[in-house]
Amino acid sequence: MFKKLGLISPLLKAIAEKGYTEPSPIQEKAIPVVLQGKDVLASAQTGTGKTAGFTLPMLQLLSQGEPGRRRKIRALVITPTRELAAQIYDNVKEYSTHLDIKATVVFGGVNANPQIRTLRNGVDILIATPGRLLDLENQNELSLRDVEILVLDEADRMLDMGFVRDINKVVKLVPNNRQTLMFSATFSKDIKKLASQYLNNPVMVEAAPENTTAEKVEHKAYPVNKKEKPEVVVKLIKEGNMKQVLVFTRTKHKANRIAEKLNKSGIEAAAIHGDKSQGARTKALAGFKEGTVAVLVATDIAARGLDIPLLPHVINYELPNVPEDYVHRIGRTARAGASGEAVSLVSHDETPYLKDIEKLLGFKIPQETIRGFERGSIEDFAEEEASFKKQNQGKNGRRPNNRNSGGKSSGGSGQKKKWRR
What we know:
The protein is of the alpha/beta class.
């Protein structure tokens, strides 16, 4: 029961209106600690209810201020992506329905003028991506000197995206006597180092994501030649009659190419990544949720924080080179007790990534073959490819020079060929 966590009645009313009755593990652990005013370092992934884990107690603490005061930014939530920022803003609005608290969100990719106008009218809570936040601060359009609560959400992803310098700048702009909450998917060495710089004697809170357990997600790995992957992904989606599929690639360029390939094959698809405008990203996500877009092709960064309920299929077109990212990807399926499927297309060079993922999961992912694209096991496939490459290399690892094969021998004439630059 949320009441046992010490939440006030306006928040309990908003929670009930959203239809929630029982708190998730991360909410149970984090909310009472945040309400005590302590710094928190929490490990929780998307889909575990972590947003409410910091939003609810933050709203309660801010609501205890003096009524009728001038609105100023008293809480700042920093997050790596526009989609996640928008999602957190929606949550803050819903939970603060019965409180006198005003919030807004700022991020890049859209006109800054409406954001500036809202900020000038005064807000209590600001949700922001690092770049736009610093731009507006540099223009003197906002002040962070009154911030009482600083939230760093998806801290591990902000590290991956190279936001550390920006975060350092932001931290210097907020008061030292603030409360700081840091949420990350893992307690990695880098995250702990970051926490030691920003947090004061933090309470460590950890909640294993329920949606990544083997019994809820059906894992499959297919050995596939890299060049055959475009045909294979089309075959899987068409023959499986998949209607809502999230396909992951490692690069923006590959996401575009796969979305284009799927569309040409008669499958409605859209790519979502950092180079897409905010309008295009919003439109693609809306089409995906409504069912007019069957496949969303995304990079890990763009997909972080996407709120997609009851997603049945995740296809790893390329395996991530960071095993924790596999957990993030499959965590988008099998939510709310539903089953889900995580399919991985594994080329021979991705075998080390697969082994790292299996080590993290604690079990081997079952391997299957696809009719028309049969191979042996992924491990055997990798060994065969490595052996083939070794046989076709000359001394010192160099490939033999076959420039003159099939033509006249250059050895008998005594003439030396000159290279043209």
